[in-house]
Amino acid sequence: MRLRPAAAVIKAQQKFAFHFIVDGHVLTEEPHASYSAGRQAKIPMLIGWNANEGASFIAGKTITAANFRQTLQDAFGPLPEPLLANYPAKTDAQAQAARAALERDLRFGYETWKWTQLQAASAGAKVYAYRFTQQPPYPADSPFAGWGAGHGMEMRYVFDQLGQEAWAWTPADQRLADTMVAYWSNFAKRGDPNGAGLPVWPAYTLAKPLTMQFGAEIKAGQSGDTGALPSFDALFEAVRKQRP
Fold this sequence. Notes:
Rossmann fold; 4 strands
């Protein structure tokens, strides 16, 4: 690193990416391979993602029906038509929403959904899945305004830190925080989020892929936006096969 020019380091920083490194010691194979073969640690898992994870990744960008395909091409290169068919962009408003949804699914939704499925398919440990849909009460001048249940917003509830932001939190927000704290604490103690006084959180199974919904209501149900996620299978499988 000391031998590299500062300009080269700065340029490398601009290409933000992170990946598992198979070092042959701590990680002896790709996690996907471990889970596919059932070789992962047989411990319970609590996993999920937020409804509007992609909002922060398009903040400040102008996405229109006219530039939708080109901006995708610039950001990700060519994407398969069957995948893009899940994100119609005939109007500017539709294009903006489609790009946010694709960013969510590509960066968080697919990997989390696939991980959940792989864990559910492997005997020996349960998986508890959730979807966070609550929109915090952002002030109109907040940089988060318009994000909805954006990336990282569940943390304020999970760790009961609503007071860190002087926003117009409601009793419903606090009830949600109290409930999520209880679930996460139970899971940390026993590997099961369920407990007295809490709505039942069923384990996710392939036969009954139920997720806990954290929003205006706290209840178990089908996730509302997984329809496009299976179409990523072919894309990621092709990428994996191209890797050395």
